[in-house]
Amino acid sequence: MDPLPHFSRSYAEARAKFVAAARAAGHAVETHLMPDRTGVDGEPLAIDVALAGSPTAQGVLVLTSATHGIEGYCGSGVQIALMHDAGVSRTAVDSGVAVVWVHAVNPHGFSFGRRVNEDNVDLNRNFRDFSVPPPVNAGYADIHDLLLPPHWPPSAEHEAKSLAYIAAHGARTYQTAVTGGQYAYPDGLFYGGTRATWSNRTMRAVLRRHAAGRRRFGWIDIHTGLGPRGLGEKIFAGRNDAADLARTRAWWGAEVTSIYDASSSSAELTGLMFNSAYEECAGVEYTGIGLEYGTLPLPAMLLALRADHWLHLHPEAPPALRASIRQGMRDAFYIDADDWKIAVVAQARDATSRALACLAKA
User: Fold this and answer.
1) What is the pLDDT of residues 150-187, one digit of tens each?
2) Please, what sign has the CA dihedral across residues 275, 262, 109, 48?
3) How does residue 4 score in pLDDT terms, banded at 50, 70 and 90?
């Protein structure tokens, strides 16, 4: 199977391809239209859900894309390629497992080329209990002004201050401070918000409808931006529980990493989307990973994110600078190269096949 035609150059194109692939495969499609918002070209925005297999199957595998908007260029392409893959379809049918494809968890970010949603919220920091005070990220408070300088690109003097912070505290501490999640700076990076977003509420409804009544629930959430180019790191997506981690490694191999023991390229985070699996599907055996594909080295990826947030705060930026920042974001989260696309689809196919086999056996 040639995966390359399944990738797209816009959210609207990706959405059309996804819906067409689902209908061609005979899957039921449900659409959750985003209210009061349109995309970069005025197009409707939606989370589209395709269901393959029986609604009463005991096992279900959920595959999600674009939790971080712009990462949907990869995730959507993978989903569409796998829906067209006869081998994956046969495996799903033979396993008796239902498959739920959730396209564009963050359609606004996908359309506008941002990682965050329409309110500058990182959805993967938004799944927390908002009835209690948020966790405090003191490290972020120390560097907020360093991350978002008054001018872009930042001056050498400004960047020297960031390098001094890293030298004093260490690269891992810096990464945790930047990416761990913060709830005090609405204009800042990795902001978790003050309430559950529309995408959060919609995803919870999807899980209640399609996963809560099962016995076993597997989840693969597709991401990009961390790790070596083209490598799909399997990051444990669950609570800090030894039995859950052991089951996840039994499904996907000993190479599954964890944010809890620093084996992952990701820092330990708060407000992660997998919390909804436990909260909306209580009593269901849940096993999940984030499938994280590497693009650029971490410093380059963070620089692209900083530029994007700066641009959000400075709409007066000249067109050439705006275009450069937008292209930098795409390059940081999607590599438009044949070898990269072939590699990410192959690894997703393997991860999906392993999950279906384990759900069938359990």
Assistant:
1) 999 999 999 999 999 999 999 999 999 999 999 999 99
2) negative
3) confident
Side by side, the strands of the sheet bearing 44-52 are: 28-38, 44-52, 98-103, 59-64, 216-229, 285-294, 232-236
Q: What value does the mean pLDDT take over residues 346-360? A: 97
Q: Which two tokens stand for residue 98?
A: 């239902």
Helices 72-83, 11-24: crossing angle, 10 deg rounding: 20
Angle at 240 between CA 283 and CA 126, to 5 degrees: 80
Estimate to the nearest angstrom the gap between the alpha carbon of 113 and the chain centroid: 14
Mean pLDDT, residues 209-237: 97
**Strand (E) or helix (H) holding 346:** helix 338-361
Residue with tokens 């392409």: 77
The token duo for 255 is 């190479």
Q: Are 49 and 206 in contact (CB under 8 A)?
A: yes
pTM score, whole prediction? 0.97
The answer on pLDDT for 45 being more than 80 is: yes
The pLDDT tens digits for 256-274 are 999 999 999 898 999 999 9
Amino acid at 48: D
Residue that has been written with the tokens 């052991």 in this structure: 246
The C-alpha atoms of residue 41 and residue 317 are separated, in whole angstroms, by 20
Beta strand segments in the chain, E: 28-38, 44-52, 59-64, 98-103, 216-229, 232-236, 285-294
Question: Is 362's pLDDT higher than 70?
Answer: no
Q: Which two tokens stand for residue 219?
A: 């989840």
In this predicted model, what pLDDT tens digit does every residue of 76-113 receive, in sequence order? 999 999 999 999 989 988 899 999 999 999 999 999 99
Give the pLDDT confidence score for residue 2 in this predicted structure. Answer: 59
What lies within 8 Å, CB to CB, of 164 at 6+ separation is: none
The greatest distance separating any two alpha carbons of the chain, rounded to the nearest whole angstrom, comes to: 61
| 152, 321 contact by CB (below 8 A) | yes
CA distances from 219 to 245, 270, 290 (A): 14, 19, 8
Could you tell me the sign of the dihedral formed by the alpha carbons of 124, 126, 127, 129, in that order? Answer: positive
What one-character-per-residue DSSP string does 274-293 give? THHHHHHSTTSEEEEEEEEE
